[in-house]
Design brief:
Mean pLDDT of chain B: 92
Strand order of the largest sheet of chain A: 4-5-6-7
Order of helices and strands of chain A: HEEEEEEHHE
Largest interface: A-B, 9 and 13 residues
Oligomer: heterodimer
Helix content of chain B: over 70%
Structural class of chain A: alpha+beta
Helix content of chain A: 25-40%
Low-confidence stretches of chain B: none
Shape of chain A: elongated
Strand content of chain A: 35-45%
Largest sheet of chain B: none
């Protein structure tokens, strides 16, 4: 039997089996869900990718954003983030007028640490070095 | 004109950060200069004095920054001493010195001096590293000229 005919028969068979005139099985694509979980540690968050039946394709901790620069007109707003007791805390840099040189150097060191993705815990650092008065804290 | 003439006690908050950031960046830039694997000997020998001078100048600048900060610390000390002398209770010289050393302003100034000294020492160690590298390149060159670089003792 010529090869072409054989293929055409096979296609016909598949078509019969699926009840589809084009010869393909209909498969419903599974719904894949992405879940961003609660903070996993002080500087990481949890991310989960799972199929609708509950099978997990991926579940891992990913590094969280530590620092963000935003423009507000001519002003640059610098914010730091950390997960503390399961909550995401944000600290916006708002220096008091009496910012001292050592405080300025420490805040700069914090920025350098965050931008080079060192394992810095910004809010802990701020509190440890008594820099809280130069920041506005909020929960995100 | 050097950067120190522009240094203002009232603007230390911004100015010191600029100094420290620059030293930090330069120290980071020095690291790859010590990786000489696969580099041409001639290029290494030619560039070495330039790097050495550059870092030596930075180290000297850092040394002067330390002096400048020490000077500023003396000024703070003087002001605090004056306050203590004008106070109601008369302290002895030694007591006054101890109390002033523990004053917040003084402690913070000393922390800045420590930070600047650390940068100075790190820059000086880079310069020393380049000196060693020059000596090593000289020796490698001599070995290659004599074609005994593979000699085993």
């Amino acid at each position: 039997m010529p090869l072409s005919n054989q293929n055409s028969n096979q296609n016909q068979n598949y078509g019969n089996a699926s009840g589809n005139p084009y010869g393909y099985y209909q498969v419903n694509a599974p719904q894949i869900g992405l879940t961003v979980g609660a903070p996993a540690s002080s500087t990481t968050g949890a991310i989960t990718i799972q199929v609708e039946d509950g099978t997990q394709l991926l579940s891992k901790n990913v590094p969280d954003e530590l620092m963000r620069f935003e423009m507000d007109g001519d002003t640059i707003i610098v914010s730091f983030f950390e997960n503390i007791d399961g909550k995401r805390v944000k600290a916006v840099f708002a220096p008091e007028d009496d910012l001292r040189p050592i405080e300025s150097v420490r805040i700069n060191a914090l920025m350098t640490g965050c931008s080079s993705m060192l394992k810095v815990r910004p809010i802990t650092y701020i509190k440890l070095h008594n820099l809280s008065r130069h920041f506005r804290f909020s929960e995100v | 004109m050097t950067a120190f003439l522009d240094l203002d006690e009232n603007r230390l908050v911004e100015q010191l950060v600029v100094f420290f950031e620059r030293y930090d960046a330069e120290i980071k830039k020095a690291e790859p200069l010590f990786e000489i694997q696969g580099e041409r000997l001639e290029r290494l020998a030619r560039d070495l004095p330039y790097h050495q001078v550059h870092y030596d100048q930075l180290a000297q600048e850092a040394r002067q920054l330390v002096k400048w900060l020490e000077n500023h610390a003396n000024r703070i000390e003087m002001r605090l001493t004056k306050n203590y002398l004008q106070g109601q209770r008369a302290y002895g010289q030694r007591e006054t010195a101890t109390l002033i050393a523990g004053e917040k302003e003084m402690v913070e100034q000393k922390q800045l001096i420590i930070e600047a000294s650390l940068y100075q020492q790190r820059l000086e160690s880079i310069v020393e590293g380049f000196r060693q590298m020059g000596w090593m390149i000289g020796n490698i060159t001599k070995l290659r000229v004599a074609s005994i670089q593979d000699a085993i003792i």
